[in-house]
Structures are given as C-alpha cells and as structure tokens.
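REVIEWER CHECKLIST
Item 1: Sequence provided? yes
Item 2: Single chain? yes
Item 3: Sequence as submitted:
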Amino acid sequence: MEETQPVAVPQAPQQKKRGGLLTFILVLMLIGYGLGALLFLLGGTVLTSLLAALGITGLAGITGSLFFVGLLAMILGFIVTIFVFLWKKWAVYVVLVLAALAVVFSQSGGFSFGGVIVQLILPGLFAYLVWKRWQFFE
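Item 4: Structure as written out by the authors:
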C-alpha cells in the first residue's frame, strides 16, 4: 500500500483589520497634529491667544527654538501617523516617543498634573490597540 503525503493547503493571507476605535484614534491624531501645525504656521500670536482662551498660560512665551521644535513635532506627528495607517512598526515607536515628549514639555510648561493624566489616556489607548494588532505591522 502506498503512503500518501498530506498536501499542504495554501492559506489565504491574514487580512489586516485596523478596527473602528484604532481608526478613530488615528483620524483624531491626524486632525490634532494637522491643526497644531497650522496653528504654529499661523504664528505665535494665534497660538498664544488660543492657549490663553483654554486657560493655558504657562506656554505664552513660546518663541525661537521652542516654537520651531513644536512646529517640527506637529509636522512629524502628522507624517508618522500616516505611516501607522500603512502598518509600519517604526512609526508606532515614533508616535509613542512624541507622546512622551509632549507630556514632558506640557508638565514643564504649566499644565496641571490632571491635564497630563488626560494627555496619557489617548497614547495609552493607542498603544493597547496597536499591541493587539502588532502582528500586522511590518
């Protein structure tokens, strides 16, 4: 009697599913980074007025190199969020580093501790949702 070898059945490639909540968070990030960059580009007076209207006075002196770093961070955040949409692992790391830097700068700039805690919720949720889908990232 002849033995037959089992035939390997090709499996369909696993479809990448981002999920509604992660997509929503990424869209919020794109809007936030885009508006942030726009505010920086419009000039310090618009940004300072907006921050004052929100009750944030510690950052009223954003000028010079700090202004330039803020603008770069917003532009970088926008670009990197697009790469997260494209399932790039390195982009996830950059987003998390930007979130950590934002917490450090906001703490030194006059935000309350409660504001920092709120500022950690979105990146924490982002990290959790990405971790659940880490196998899809390249």
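Item 5: Key structural point noted by reviewer: The chain has five helices and no strands.
Item 6: Recommendation: ____
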